[in-house]
Amino acid sequence: MITLKIDGKTVEVPENTTVLRAAEAAGITIPTLCDHPDLTPYGGCRLCVVEVKGYRLPMASCALPVSQDMEVITENPALAEARRGILELLLSDYYDQGYEDGLGGSNELLHWAEHYHIDLEQAMAKQPRYRVDSDPNPFVWVDMNKCILCTRCIRACADVQGRFVWSLAARGAHTQVVAGAGTTMLDARCESCGACVAYCPTGALNNKMSLHLGAADRKVTTTCTYCGVGCQLELNVKDDKVIRVTSNSDAAVNGMRLCVKGRYGYDFIHHPDRLTQPQVRKYLLDGTPRPPGRGEWVTVDWDTALDLTAAKLSACRDIYGSNSLGILCSAKCLNEENYLFNKFARQVIGTNNIDHCARL
Amino acid sequence: MSAHTTDNGYKEMARLAIEKHGTSPDALIPILLEVNQEYGYIPVKALTEIKKHLNAPVGDRLIQEGHLFSLASFYHMLSLKARGRHIVLFCESAPCHVTGGRAVWQALQEQLSLSAGETSPDGKWSLVTTSCLGACGVGPVVVIDEDMYGNVTPERLPEILSRYE
Amino acid sequence: MLIIGSNTTEQHPVFGTMIRQAVMHRGVKLVVADPRKIDITEFATLHLQLRPGTDIPLVNGLMNIILEKGWEDRDFILNRTEGFDEVRQTLEHYTPEHVAQLTGIPLEKLYEAAEILATNKPMAVMWAMGITQHIVGVNNVMDLANLQMMLGNLGVPGGGVNPLRGQNNVQGACDMGGLPNVYSGYQNVTLDASREKFEAAWGAQLSQTVGMTVTEMIPGIEEDKIHALYVLGEDPIVSDPNSSHIRKCMEECDLVILQEIFPSETSPYADILLPGASFAEKSGTFTNTERRVQMVHQAISPPGEARPDWWIIAEIARRVLAQGARQVQPAPYSGWEYENTSQIMDEVAALTPSYAGVSHARLERDPAGLHWPVKDAEHPGTPILHVGQFTRGKGHFMPVEHVPPAELPDEAYPMLLNTGRVLYHWHGGEMTRRSAGLLEIYSHAKIEINPEDARMLGLNGKRRVRVSSRRGSIEAHAWITDRVPTGMIFSNFHFPESSANELTIAALDPVAKIPEYKICAVRVEALD
Amino acid sequence: MTTIKSLADLDQLRQAALQNKQRQAETGDAWMTVDLSTPALASGASRTLKTILDYVAARKLEHVHVQQTANIGYDSLEPIVRVVIGGNPEVTYGKVTEAVAERILTEHLLGGKVVEEYRIEQLLAQLG
Amino acid sequence: MMEVKVINKRALVLVSDDSESRRLGSQELLQALRTEIDRCGLANEVDLNTIVDVGAKNLLPLVIIYPEAVVYGPVHPADAGRIVKEHLSQGRVIEEMIVPKHQLTGRIAWLAARSGALPAAQRIVLERAGRIDPESIEDYIIYDGYQALTKALTQMTPAQVIEELTISGLQGRGGAGFPTGKKWEIVASTSGSKKYVICNADESEPGTYKDRVILESDPHSIVEAMALAAYAIGADEGFIYIRGEYQLAQQRFQKAIEQAQALGLLGEHILGTDFSFHLHIHSGAGAYVCGEETALIESIEGKRGEPRSRPPYPTTHGLWGCPTLVNNVETLANVPPILRRSGEWYKKFGTPSSPGTKVYTIFGNVNLTGVFEVPMGITLREAISIYAKGMKNGAAFKLAQTGGSSGSLIPASLQDTPLDFAATRKAGVSLGSGALLIADENTCVVDLVKVLLNFFRFESCGKCTPCRIGTQRSYEILTRITQGQAELDALDELLKLADQMVRLSNCGLGQTAAVPIRDMLKHFRTEVEAHIQLGVCPTGVCPMRVEAPAAEEMQPLASA
Description:
The complex is a heteropentamer of chains A (360), B (165), C (528), D (128) and E (560).
Chain C: E1 2-4, H1 8-11, H2 13-26, E2 31-33, E3 46-48, H3 55-69, H4 74-80, E4 81-82, H5 84-91, H6 96-103, H7 107-119, E5 125-127, H8 129-132, H9 137-150, E6 161-163, H10 170-175, E7 182-183, E8 187-188, H11 192-202, H12 214-222, E9 228-232, H13 236-239, H14 243-252, E10 255-260, E11 272-275, E12 284-287, E13 292-296, H15 309-322, H16 341-351, H17 360-365, E14 370-371, E15 395-396, E16 415-420, H18 436-441, E17 446-449, H19 451-456, E18 464-468, E19 473-480, E20 488-492, E21 520-527
Parallel strand pairs in C: 1-2, 1-5, 2-3, 4-15, 5-6, 9-10, 10-11, 16-20, 17-19
Antiparallel strand pairs in C: 7-8, 12-13, 13-14, 16-21, 17-20, 18-19, 18-21
Chain D: H1 7-26, E1 30-35, H2 38-42, H3 45-58, E2 64-69, E3 81-85, E4 91-93, H4 98-110, H5 120-127
Parallel strand pairs in D: 1-2
Antiparallel strand pairs in D: 1-3, 3-4
Helix pairs in contact in D: 3-4
Chain E: E1 11-16, H1 19-23, H2 26-39, E2 46-51, E3 63-66, E4 70-72, H3 80-89, H4 137-142, H5 147-155, H6 158-168, H7 180-189, E5 196-201, H8 210-217, H9 219-233, E6 237-242, H10 247-262, E7 278-283, H11 293-300, E8 324-328, H12 329-333, H13 335-340, H14 343-347, E9 357-364, E10 370-375, H15 380-387, E11 397-402, E12 409-411, H16 421-426, E13 435-440, H17 445-459, H18 465-482, H19 489-504, H20 508-523, H21 525-534
Parallel strand pairs in E: 1-2, 5-6, 5-8, 6-7, 9-13
Antiparallel strand pairs in E: 1-3, 3-4, 9-10, 11-12, 11-13
Helix pairs in contact in E: 2-3, 5-9, 6-7, 6-9, 8-9, 8-10, 17-18, 17-20, 18-19, 18-20, 19-20
């Protein structure tokens, strides 16, 4: 363990902890943009500079390992001025076209700009440098005018997804983030997991499906409906509609990770094909024999449908015996629902003919 | 060059370069330099071929075209754009600048009818600026292909350029 | 780590990313056994490109080498297991040379794999349907257990025989008694004690015989054994093997009740169609492949008149019980009056020892979820099974012999068909085909064909093929790729119009009744 | 060449090489040493070298040995060529273009007369 | 046979001419000296000039004569004849007129270290340059080659090698001047089974080509030095990172490696001992920033040359995370002579605070360009007058830039500052790599600084904000000034950007990119303001009108 002083507070942290994390442990927030706890430290944006006794110049706390008896100051007028300067430089390369980005006009960059009382109007670039929506990926919106080259997308793709779609190209003033060999994301073997979007602090990468839908009213944490990993995700809800899916570092199984289906495969929920009314075949209502192909559908109310179902099931049971019925429950449904089906088959029908697609 | 720019050509080139330099990470830039030398630039197809040979995690990364592209666009001796038959390198650093480089640069652009980074339509010349080549004692310096010319003046240029077909 | 029969990065993408990171950042040595060059092989120290259906020879061969080299964990075998000698005898036939011949894996790779797997501890085995969807599925799994017991890799963190369950709540559906042989918590229906317990709880007489599996029920229609099917959120036409046969059976069924969120390929065969709620529209729990029980929270209301499935089933149950011949006595859990799923979970907990400590209130407090068994309200859950002791006491080695697949390529059907899923779609594709972006990226079925085969078949730039088996035929786009070896094609079943299951064979594992989706013989023709 | 194992080995090698040079000097042969450093090459040293080699070859001057060295430090006086004949003091020339090289060969090597105006001392004196 | 070539003797005489000296007769002295020099016919060989603010009041007026750097004082007009006759004509130092060393104070105190020997004769690093065939290991051995290595391996422990180096006081010649012995000591004492030696030959600082001269002229000296370093720190593998543009140096070095291997001086069991050392060449691919040692390491590791955050330093966490010694070519070239002779021997050269010699490159608007090696502590004036043979076409000296693009702009008024590490640091200028760009009165400082910032904005790796964006914004402002488009507050903006670059950049590139801006505004503010306020470029270099659009269109590299 290493003991050091941050803003006068004595902090004890394990070796190889960064000053930034040590400050966090002490409840001190240091502004950052390029840093994220899930990602390899980068030390690029320089917003997190602190003063360290023995060093002539401010040090980037996100990349500085603690050392014994270090004395750190995280905020003072000189550092505030330095941060303001960094933000002004970043903003001088940042251009907002003014479209509704679904972030409610806020992102991490703008948050800190506001925190340090920067006049956005004056500080922002006066013209765009890149085409907006420059990648055809159906899920990821790319607007490099908002990119501050923090490389969180690059590191997210590498450190979280293990896919290496994004990288930096060129250098100096011409440095930019590109997909693959300057191709489209999909051509660069992007799996559209959206990790890059999840980690982007400026909205340069954004969720295309959610772009003009505004901010969510609330977020509901739930478990993904696709594979057996059981990822936790946040359904962002507005006007009783899911407008976005986000991930959260707190999720026990997956953290910020999600796959393309989990993050973007949610629009089936609102698909017009959804069944919204019980339907029964007309012949059942008419009490006539079943026509070939079972005949036409009739939309009915629940009572009709439920009564009919119950009547047909009990009739079948009573005529052919309990074991003439088969119950297929579902690996997509809740535990509670599957339990009820098991109870239904065994208690109500009296059969063990219950199965689901575990084998398929 | 055309024989090389077939898919098989790229494959063969990638194989040879890997054979020579290996697949460890420190071989990446030497491999790219080799390709650049072979083609005068680095075709994206060649990156794909190289990548195929490197497809095992290298340290904390899996080498994809993107990383190779990133390297190729970072290092100035590597080009991602096709170049002309002759590459004219002009040193634009301060030492050459104060000894008359500006005039030479003007003259070069005029005589080749090219701006920085351009290739002539007939594919003969590419004009490229470079930072210091370490021959400041004889600046201004122009390099054409492998030949370095020191103490260049606008007046000397036509004779120098005429040496190239 | 050994991944066998799992295309992890496409089927369980988030686990896939974790495995990638483990290789890159923790230096985990990864061996992937798969007939295809799936994506995760990029991260593998070694890729064993075995012939389909030769998992048992491979695993036996690896064990043979392990014994030859003396890498087995003698203490573990002695203290924790039984039946090792029989396995040892069986393994004698699986000499590395013989195994190399059967699997098509070069001898030196077998040795290399055995060394990696035996000398890096702990070693975890990850497997999925590539192991189970064979006529020898159960034996495949047992053989993997043999391997892990031999190496002492059970009951330790980072070890184990880890199945990656296909669907989100396949684990939960099994846990909850959605199986013909067990009640919730794997309480056997043929065991008097279990049956009596549930009879007492539910107030009804229960059947003593094991029921039919899905793969028996549907063909059972033809045999007049089954007259009615009540199907919840499943699409047997697409997901079951030999679709044309399924269609014929469904057509004949007297009564088909389908409870779904979308009209499916199965709905033309339904008589009653009940609109269910999607996962976003109801609350309850799912249990993931790690046995972790987690909350599902309702975020929005169901569309129109759609209702949560638990509500629908309870309504039907009440109505069925109200009429007809079957009597239910008053009992602690005989009723069907549920206001929410929390009450249902309380009933589950009361009747299911492994879920005894699970309640919604507890899960709300701890969003990380609980790994069952959770023995009571204070029990912390069980992330790792078999620590110190197996459930049954000693781990039992089961000798396993190679059985060739049910249908192998022949002159008429010279190619081998392997099936599975792709990243962008899921199962029958009911949901993913209704997601615009997913469909944009992956819009139609693609048949993976090796370039060499493509040349032999005269594809010659043509992109459409017809694939036929003894059971049916589909047309689809060809994806010429060296992901598949020569002689083998790969197809998915996400697109009804060209579903692989038109072709697959309904040959079943004798124990688990799992169809052999992974292997059948087909013929491929180029189309214009 | 055997490998070196000690200071004595190294010294032996050094002595042998020195003696070899000494013997060469005693023959009265001539050595022309051309600077082939980068500034030299940028100033046309490769052409100078070629001129010298061609001249020597054409006239079959077997007693003239051409060798290379590198940068002595006067970049603006490149190409620099050094001439030593037998045991005589060496003469260093600067700005040795092809034409100057021919003059040096003809006048100095064959004629025994130093081309004064291209002696490096002369060139340096002119500068200040 | 081949003697060291000494540059033509040419003297520089400086007479103190501040107000105190004048009061004591410096003007008369100057006149007397001029007359005597003319009388003796030395007008073409001796440069007579004045010096101000020498700070040694009790000795005034004083006379300093270079290249010997002898200080006479106080000197009366009557002494002029003797000085010219004895010292300048006959080359005899007049011992009794020399100021006692302990009396030297103020700004010329450093001269105490200057002995009477001719600096240019004291070649250590370039001892063999231009004398031997660089492609012949025999030539190298004839001139004492591999003696140090043989001596070290057979007679010295690694600790003794480092000790000798520490005694010598050698400081890194790449620019920072870190004590070399100390650096070796740190790497040697860091635990780790694998260590590396890296020779930084990525000499990209514009105008610096001393390392190229060493590698092209005497590659074996670096092979030997790297083997010595490896032995001292316990490494068995080394890389020399040579600029990709230095093809000739690469070829010659490759040949040297092969020759050394053939003689058993590299490879396994060198000289039959347990010491093994494998040396590889790694070619750069065109990136200035890779001269920064951590960027260089990243580059070897197959990545973009982005400097790492420090600490930790390469001495503990270098190549592949292993302890790594990174030394500049010139630094290493000093090592074999030190070990062959001794640390004490080496300390006799240069100044007490900066022992040894320094290799300078000099170019620009001067008569003789090239490379020269002198003891630490010569002045810029000396370099121009004596080694570069004065300004070209008789133009006036306006400014020098020392140490390449990142170095200081030194105005004529500071040309008597001695060029050693301590004195330059004190004067607020950086000695850097030893490049001396000499610019005359026809050079526009704004135009020059714009060229420098153009360089930096392309050479910045792009990683950190202050450097990537700061260099670009600075360049844009400078461009506006040269186009007559700037307001006076642009200069405040420039200073603010410079301050951000210095304080907040991740590495030296961004930090030093600000130096020329600051120096420009410190020494040449009037000239800059003339552009803005008068709308004229005093030297007539800048166009003072918009020629082309200043803003650059940038499209994503993505082709989509």
